[in-house]
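In this supplementary section we document a worked example of the pipeline. Step one takes a protein sequence of length 460 as its only input; no multiple sequence alignment statistics are reported here. Step two produces a three-dimensional model, which step three serialises into structure tokens for compact storage. The input and output of this example are shown verbatim.
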Amino acid sequence: MSPNSLLLPELREMLAKNDVAEMQQFCSALHPASTADFMVGLTPTEIWSILRNIEPKTRADIFSYFDEDLQVQIFESAPRDEIADFIAYLPSDDRVDILDEVEPEIVDEILPMVSQEDQLDIQNLSAYPEDSCGAEMSTDYVRLREDMTFREALDEIRRQSETLETLNYLYVLDSEGKLVGLISAKELLLQIGKPDSQLKDHLTRDIISVGAEEDREVAAKLVQKYDFTAIPVVDHDNKMLGIITHDDVLDAVVEEMAEDAHLSAAVSPLEESYMETGLWTLARNRFTWLAILLFGAISTAFILNLFESVNAKILWLATFLPMIVSTGGNSGGQSATLVITALATGQITLQDWYRILRREVLMGILLGLGMGLCGLINAVIIMWPKLVAHEITLSRLSVVPATVFLVVFSSNMTGALLPLLFKKFGWDPALMSNPFVAGISDTLGTLIYMVLALVFLIGF
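The serialised model returned by step three reads:
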């Protein structure tokens, strides 16, 4: 039994007695994340019965540590008017994400009770494309004017602080809402002894920002590169729209990693967690790609059937086919993984295609020679009795290492260049997953093996 479950009877007893003072003490005694952990196991209704009795800021902090499914259940089960009031205290990006998952008819009941300002904010954020910077941003940030003094700035920060997501950066806008500079919280504290100094004399004006329509990966790379805790989001006229904080970037990166991991295994990305995804949905997601790969493998069967006469005359050829195609698949999978990872982390771009091609040509030759030698050794070991009996010659057996060399070389090039091609057409490079690379390598390997056998062992 987990420590969390040991506390559940006490929490339910607290609810039964409607002991508001005890609820408030429980919610304020620990870090909000720990409080949320201890409440997991209660029903959504029970959780809300506790949260409704504490001050809104603490309520929002605790609520943020529940997983999204539980947040949605609370939204759907709690009184609509109470949820409408609560929405004002949630980070703007979080409430949009939750409302996107709540049943539409319930959202229609809640939104009319939300303030006009919050309704407009929700509507604006919901309009941005999924995975864009606009969809990830929060509109809760400090807005200051450059003609303010530090004393005025502090007063303004106190006024805005109730709904702010971060105070690390304070953004300075002109009368049209355009971003003209920022000042860090550290700089603000350093100037606290000069309350009448103006912000404009201490601003950082060379600001790195992202466009609202840009992919969220752009923001993630900039936050990583410059070690930002937040990055501003602007429109085409440089008007400030919001910020993307480092925790939002981390959530986006984790989501992208999970999506790429699914694609790399030829599984359609899951909308919900593994355990919460229905068996039928999971089977459908897996079956679709498995069927595509199966039908793709018909080309290999077609090639073997086309060269049936070659296999009939030289029976030992089939012995080495699994080794050859698996070696090609492994080599192509390695190249694809390296290039996809380098693309995802910003180590390479499409403009580097020629350098990548040159490196992979050399790498293909080196790996091909090494694996060809290993293939020769394996072939000699397996066919040693036939070699001793003079049923086969070493020269004829050399078709195996020659094929391994060509298959490794071609698979290496395929695995490296196809992700770049996918990126060029705007597709996710992760779609060029290991199973797909392996399928292509199987076809190439089988074709090369049969052609070499036909030319060198049988002749036209």
